Amino acid sequence: MRGNFNYKRPYGWKRFALKVLDKYEDNTWLGVEGRENERHSTQDEWPVCYHGTVIHNCKSIVENGYLLNKGKRFRYGVGIYSTPDINVAAEYSSKFAHKGSYYVAVIQNRVNPSSLIKISKMKTGIGEYWITPTRNDIRPYGICIKKEATT
């Protein structure tokens, strides 16, 4: 559990943590203190979500946060789109080549549950979407990279 939402670890992905401790007004959103165990959230902890993108956008998102004016598709409303399922996010990531292999990159975030808008898998046909109306309510804290299987 993270932020009282189910949390699926990104198994099979290589995760690179971003330096976010003390970047914001406090660290409560990360749930770094007071966790009983992995199955419990801390008070006011934000849930984990994933955002698929192209590799060259990762640096800008990490440095500047999510910018709504960079969005191209707002099928279910204006906001930053993410999902609690890394495999759904990967569908929106473009492959990139590195040393003869192909990879996909997904940004791991925490999202403010009080502003979160959920769009069901039944409605999207792909997976659950989370829409965050403002850039201040979604914070990148990791980059996950996965090698694509060769076909």
UniProtKB/TrEMBL annotation:
Q: What is the lineage of its organism?
A: Eukaryota, Fungi, Fungi incertae sedis, Mucoromycota, Glomeromycotina
> What SUPFAM superfamilies has UniProt attached to this entry?
ADP-ribosylation (SSF56399)
Report the protein name in the record: PARP catalytic domain-containing protein
